[in-house]
Every structure is written in C-alpha cells, then in structure tokens.
Amino acid sequence: MKLVTAESTTPAHKRNPGYPLDLDWVERVRMNRSALERRAGTIGARRTVKKDHQLAWLLKAITMIDLTTLNSDDTPGRVERLCAKARHPVRQDILDQLGMSGRRILPGAVCVYHSFVDTAVRALEGTGIPVAAVSTGFPHGLAPVETKIAEIEASVKDGAKEIDIVIERGMVLRGDWQALYDQVKAFRKACGDAHIKTILGTGELATQTNVAKASLVCMLAGADFIKTSTGKEKVNANLVTSLTMIRMIRWFAEETGIEIGYKPAGGIATAVDALKYMALMKEELGTNWLQPHLFRFGASSLLTDIERQLEHGLTGHYAADYRQPMV
Ligand SMILES: O=C[C@H](O)COP(=O)(O)O
C-alpha cells in the first residue's frame, strides 16, 4: 500500500470553487433513517480489510488524523507536547519492525484553539504538518458574525492552514438555507488559501435529512471538507450520520466533478473504529478518498490506541500505557 504522508498531500486536487445556492436541489434531498441504519449495520460485519493488511491500514489511518487538543485547560506546554508527538507519531522500534524506518508517517494536521495556533506553528516548523484552528465561536458558533470572521482572519494570520468553522445549528433547524449559505460563503472568503472544514454539529440537527441538506448547502458555499461534530455535542460522529454525509459528497461530486473531504470527529478513539470508518469510505467513495486531502479523523486519543494495536499486531501483547504517552 502506498502511504501518503504530509510530504505528498494535496496533490493536483481541484479546490471547491463554490456554487450558487440551488434551493430546488436542497428541497429534493431526503434521507431514510432506517435504510441508513441497516446499511451502517453492515460496515465492519464483512471483512473489508484483510487481517494481513490491517497494520498497513492503521499506519495509513495515522496520516489522516487531525491530532487534536480542544480543552478549556489547554496550555502552550500541552500543545508543544502534542506537536512533539505529531513529529514522531509512532515509536521508532515499531516502525523498524514494520520495515517502515525510512518513511515519514505524519498526521494530517494538529488541531487547536486559536490561542495556540502560533505555538503549534512554531513547534511544527519544518515538518510540513499543517495547523488547523477551530473557529467561529467553537463549539456553539453563536458569536456575532463580525467576531467570527475576525477570528478566522486572526488564525490565518498566525499561520493556520486549515480552519474548522462551526455552523449555527439554528439556521438548519429553521430551514434558513440562505442564511447558512451566506455565512459559510463569508467564512470561506475570510479563509483565503486556508482550507475550510465546516462542522455541522450533526448530533443537534434533529434529522438525517437536515444533516444531508446542511452538508449540501455548505458544499455549495465552498466548503473543502464537511465535518460531523465539535466533539462537545451529546452525540458526535457515528456511522449512520457518516453515511448520510458521504452520500451527499458523492452526489455533489457526480453533479459538479468536485471532490469534497470528509471529517468524522468526536468519540473516535479505537483502531477498530478507525478501520470501520475507512471501510465505509472505501465502500461508498472508493480508495481515492482515503487520502489526507479528502479524509481526516478529528480525534484526541485515537493515535494512542492505534500505536497499541500496531505493537500488539507485531508482538502479540500490549504495551503499558506509559510507553505511548500523548501529552
Ligand atoms: O475535532 C475533534 C474533536 O474535538 C475530538 O474529539 P475527541 O476528543 O472525542 O477525540
């Protein structure tokens, strides 16, 4: 399996230019929750990833993690430790045993609050790992629009290459697609060359049809990625919602030829979970989407479990937790 690292990300990928808001298209969108649940229940039941390939898939998963710390007690020291982990996500002895010693395996990005963007940019200098900033009044998204735009601009100025904005869930619940479109379009403009991920807060959108419509409106407004959750909602990423969102990505690609990225986030903490999401992407969108410019996990603890599973796959036993410290 060809591993994609930060050195080779974002190949000749056509960025979403944004499209006019097509309300007829939005109105046509319908999702059937029970059909989605039935389909989601089949993921992982069949062996999409053969046992022999699992370690390669787990290494690949690492290249698609947005290594995240989003705690109210974050400090520059914690962010620096996270960045040190990002520089060396897998212990050297594990890489050696996997025959991967010469390869650079790095996470997709390091994701932090705005206050820590400059710290992370400095700590990651020379690695090519981008810094992602959560923005626009994360996690609720309820600040005045001018404040949100200023926050995006400040993070871009400090060196963030990716901006994870949150949408106002109320716009979706009211069906005010025009307001949602206008706001996301303004955010995209403020991002400039930085890529924009739009967090829907899916656990608060009431129906799968709402999730699907919100996904479409964000993509029409110019989103580079659609992302499920902030990690702070009661219900975060899951396979049913993922199915809804990636089917909208597929539909959008069929209509426009533009490939939008997908980022499930919140509560994805085990290698088994990661493999299920990767299987879902492969089965619904194809292996092309399993690259860091089209797929990310938003996760704070996933890497720890992946490292444990890599070691277990090699040695048959688990390492003590202290051998894989995070931050
Ligand atoms: O966007 C990332 C999430 O906030 C991470 O959530 P987590 O801490 O449940 O992995």
From TrEMBL:
This protein's UniProt keywords: Lyase, Schiff base
Q: In which pathway does it act?
A: Carbohydrate degradation; 2-deoxy-D-ribose 1-phosphate degradation; D-glyceraldehyde 3-phosphate and acetaldehyde from 2-deoxy-alpha-D-ribose 1-phosphate: step 2/2
InterPro entries in the cross-refs = Aldolase_TIM (IPR013785), DeoC (IPR011343), DeoC/FbaB/LacD_aldolase (IPR002915)
GO terms of molecular function: deoxyribose-phosphate aldolase activity
Q: Which top EC class is given?
A: lyase
Q: Which reaction does it catalyse?
A: 2-deoxy-D-ribose 5-phosphate = D-glyceraldehyde 3-phosphate + acetaldehyde
Please tell me one Gene Ontology term that the record gives under cellular component: cytoplasm
Q: Name one Pfam family in it.
A: DeoC
Q: Where are the coiled-coil regions?
A: none
What EC number(s) does the entry state? 4.1.2.4
Please give a single GO biological process term from the UniProt record: deoxyribonucleotide catabolic process
Please give the family membership noted in the entry: Belongs to the DeoC/FbaB aldolase family. DeoC type 2 subfamily.
Identify this protein by name: Deoxyribose-phosphate aldolase
Q: Which organism is it from?
A: Devosia subaequoris
What taxonomic classification does the UniProt entry list for its organism? Bacteria, Pseudomonadati, Pseudomonadota, Alphaproteobacteria, Hyphomicrobiales
